[in-house]
Specification:
This protein has 177 residues and is mostly helical. It is 83% helix and 0% strand. The protein is built from seven helices and no strands. α2 runs antiparallel to α3, α5 packs across α6 and α5 packs across α7. The longest helix is centred in the last third of the chain and has 44 residues. It is elongated, with a radius of gyration of 20 Å.
């Protein structure tokens, strides 16, 4: 079975967009790992461009979280009422969640983008808690671009440093053998 690194190397931005989009819908996919791998590859003279990687990651994250929001908006509240008691989610906790998303939803979404499990379910939670659409979209776009740029450019710089150090190191190892 091919590894994520192999898939990113062979299929590039398609894998980046697909995995990050699916993760942002709420599925347990390694979106951040794919972003980091693709960014490192972009920094080590592969066929990937760092700007394309960051834009693809951000766009996929935005679209995926929009789908999650719609799912949460349509089915989330009902599911919380129906199955919430099994998870100790009471009516008062549901109301608290709605209040928090109305009052602090933008901050919650932006911060959630940087927290692995929350990143996957933030859109669903925002929809289920009736966060206003415009506020959701603004926070979704800002959070996605901040997240993609931060991890993308940091990993890209790491890739550049690996490339810079690896070249002379390969020559030294080759001369020693």
């Amino acid at each position: 079975m091919p590894s994520i690194a192999h898939l990113v190397h062979d299929y590039g931005l398609v894998v980046v967009g697909g995995v990050i989009g699916l993760e942002s819908i709420g599925l347990p996919f390694p979106g951040e790992s794919v972003l980091i791998l693709a960014s490192i590859f972009a920094g080590t003279k592969h066929d990937l461009n760092i700007v394309s990687v960051v834009l693809t990651a951000a766009t996929s994250a935005i679209v995926g979280q929009m789908v999650g929001y719609v799912i949460g908006r349509e089915f989330g509240y009902y599911l919380l009422l129906r199955y919430g008691p099994y998870l100790r989610i009471t009516q008062s906790r549901i109301k608290l969640g709605e209040y928090l998303f109305l009052r602090h939803g933008g901050k919650i979404l932006i911060i959630a983008r940087f927290v692995p499990v929350l990143r996957s379910i933030a859109g669903i939670l925002a929809g289920a808690n009736r966060m206003p659409w415009r506020q959701f979209m603004l926070a979704n776009v800002v959070g996605a671009f901040l997240w993609a740029a931060f991890f993308g450019f940091a990993a890209y710089m790491l890739g550049r440093q690996i490339e810079r150090v690896a070249g002379p190191l390969v020559m030294v190892i080759g001369a020693a053998t």
